[in-house]
Design a protein that fits this description.
The chain has about 210 residues and is of the alpha/beta class. It has nine helices and eight strands. It has one domain (about 10-205): TIM Barrel (Alpha-Beta Barrel). Strands 1-2-3-4-5-6-7-8 form an eight-stranded parallel β-barrel, surrounded by seven helices.
């Protein structure tokens, strides 16, 4: 059975932004502040490092009863029994991924167009990540998605849509009425000196528009 999912405040990790701080403690503080979902992104790690880091982080997310999503790596997701995996357009196709992970794991897919959104949903995605809705420094190759396209995607698919890309407490209110189910943030929490307080502000902001 798939876990219950609350997409309202979706934290995507970035180890570089954590600096010298304890990574697991930072994420734990973010969850205490209101993050409802955590995605572990480890672009530079070896498979062994990714696995060990996923195991450590899963202890934290399990403690707080928050689902852990693994970025890109289905093998890591299965190895640590995470809640699910999130794939980009250049990763394994969603249809093939669903066959591998089975019906009880969460499958997220990044999309930028209505066409990609429809295909991802038909191929078995549980939710969509749509962006970048604002310029972002954490993913330099991310192209902007217009408010109009975001609204079209939300109105076309029946699965939750999470907006991502350059989002913070100042610009999240601009997404009110778009149809999203939540927002995904990186630096708005990972780069902050007080991640718990940052998450609390973001949570209040997000809940004000959903």
């Amino acid at each position: 059975m798939k876990p219950e999912m609350d997409y309202s405040l979706y934290l995507v990790t970035d180890r570089a932004l954590a600096g010298e701080r304890d990574f697991e403690d930072l994420v734990g503080r973010a969850i205490r502040g209101g993050c409802t979902l955590v995605q572990l992104r480890e672009k530079e790690a070896s498979s062994g490092e990714f696995y060990e880091r996923a195991l450590r982080l899963k202890k934290v997310t399990d403690y707080f009863h928050v689902p852990l999503i693994i970025d890109d790596r289905i093998d890591i997701m299965l190895a640590v029994d995470a809640a699910g995996v999130h794939l980009g357009q250049s990763d394994l196709p969603a249809e093939a991924a669903r066959q591998i992970i089975g019906p009880d794991k969460i499958l997220g897919v990044s999309v930028r167009t209505v066409e990609d959104a429809e295909k991802a949903e038909s191929d078995g995605a549980d939710y969509l990540g749509v962006g970048a809705v604002y310029p972002t420094t954490t993913k330099g190759d991310a192209e902007k998605v217009s408010r109009e396209e975001l609204e079209k995607i939300c109105s076309t698919v029946s699965i939750p849509v999470v907006a991502i890309g350059g989002l913070n407490a100042r610009n999240i209110p601009s997404l009110e009425g778009s149809g999203i189910s939540g927002v995904a943030v990186v630096s708005a929490i990972m780069a902050q000196d007080r991640p718990e307080e940052a998450a609390r502000l973001l949570k209040d902001t997000v809940y004000g528009i959903l």
